[in-house]
Design brief:
404 residues, alpha+beta, OB fold (Dihydrolipoamide Acetyltransferase, E2P), Dihydrolipoamide Transferase, Chloramphenicol Acetyltransferase
């Protein structure tokens, strides 16, 4: 009988939370098959089976389990069920348990936090269908609503007047609780201020229109806005190094490298993977790294190491339609740049009113080590680079900068 213990997801992490079991008690599992999703305070990770055999679960969904504790047993002497064969590929999460749930007697559920609570995958499906979890009966462990339950759920066809007014209670994941703690910490422990400016995105629009197809054909990635913003931030950090600094006790720690954190939306909430040594990357390099990290975050494969150690953050609320916001600093960093949506607005150029694609940008900064002059100068430097990218970001040689 093999005892499976919780591996350490990263330094300083002492416990994880069982977010979702991907198998049921008594199932036959294959070696390396994903059997559970576990939350730490930094990321969500998959737990693979260490051997093939029949599994016995030793922890409930929602349990906080210490690193090194036994979460399940695998009977490696059990015979593989007839009709199945060993495979080198890990079974997909989409695969349903081998048991015929259509003819099984629904399990008796006990009241717990999981009763009526959808798994993360199920919640997403229910939200897309505009179905409340209170209207779905869960067949998972302790009455938890599984992805299979959500896929089979049918919206009520009743009239508006007959709708049931309900509510649901969902336990916050360990990751979400940690994010909440860090946001409160940033508000309470930093002297945070925000300065604003606006950027005429016309020059970048013109460059993308002319070169985006050639760029994508040559490099296999799109020429987006993130490469322009990342390289504009790198240039501004060179000019204003205090923005690339952190407070460490009674000292100010300034970095000569630029590790840029990018806030992306993942299935478990906000993820902030890091583009390492952005000062050494080209437009192609930034776009390729942004794509790689975004895909890993979306697929829940991002690691703790990939989200640790950034020196400055870029957050793009514009993808969700935000016009203007005050982003919160990502501690222990001292600055974060907020991007917003691009709207055609009337602006004055050379004494005439013209229509231009305008984006409002915001820099939130820690006033304890960044003065107003530096914060405003930094944001103006970002604005200048974005409004004159050919000269300031491409050194007047567009094709060489884009490696075309």
């Amino acid at each position: 009988m093999l005892e499976m213990k919780v591996p350490s997801p990263g330094e300083s992490i002492t416990e994880v939370e069982i977010a979702q079991w991907l198998v049921q008690d008594g199932d036959y599992v294959e070696k390396d098959q994903a059997i559970a999703e576990v939350d730490s305070d930094k990321a969500t990770l998959e737990l693979p089976a260490e051997a093939s055999g029949v599994i016995t679960l030793k922890a409930e969904e929602g349990d906080a389990v210490a690193v090194g504790a036994v979460v399940c047993l695998i009977d490696t002497t059990a015979a593989r069920p007839e009709g199945t064969s060993a495979t080198t590929d890990s079974p997909s999460k989409e695969k349903q348990p081998a048991k015929d749930t259509a003819i099984q007697t629904p399990p008796t559920t006990k009241e717990s936090y999981a009763t009526g609570t959808p798994s993360p995958a199920a919640k997403k499906i229910l939200d897309e269908k505009s179905i409340t979890s209170t209207s779905v009966s869960g067949t998972g462990r302790d009455g938890r609503i599984t992805k299979h339950d959500a896929l089979n759920a049918v919206p009520s066809m009743g009239s508006v007047g007959s709708k049931i007014r309900g509510e649901s209670r969902t336990k916050l994941s360990m990751l979400r609780r940690k994010v909440a703690e860090r946001l409160v910490e940033a508000k309470n422990t930093t002297a945070m201020l925000t300065t604003f400016n606006e950027v005429d995105m016309g020059p970048i629009f013109a460059l993308r229109k002319e070169y985006k197809e050639t760029f994508k054909a040559k490099h296999g990635v799109g020429l987006g806005f993130m490469s322009f913003f990342t390289l504009a931030v790198v240039r501004a950090l060179e000019l204003y190094p205090s923005v690339n600094s952190m407070i460490d006790g009674k000292e100010m720690l300034t970095y000569d490298y630029k590790d840029i954190s990018i806030a992306v939306s993942g299935p478990k909430g906000l993820m902030v993977p890091v583009i390492r040594n952005a000062e050494n990357l080209t437009f192609r390099g930034v776009e390729a790294e942004v794509k790689r990290l975004a895909i890993r975050a979306r697929d829940g494969q991002i690691t703790v190491d990939e989200m640790t150690g950034g020196t400055f953050t870029i957050s793009n609320g514009g993808v969700f339609g935000s016009m203007l916001s005050t982003p919160i600093i990502n501690p222990p960093q001292s600055g974060i740049l907020g991007m917003h949506n691009i709207v055609e607005r009337p602006v004055v150029k050379e004494g005439a009113v013209v229509i231009a694609p305008i984006m409002y940008v915001a820099l939130s900064y820690d006033h304890r080590i960044i003065d107003g002059k530096e914060s405003v100068g930094f944001l103006v430097a970002v604005k200048e680079a974005l409004e004159n990218p050919t000269e300031l970001l491409m050194h007047s040689d567009v094709e060489k900068a884009l490696e075309l």
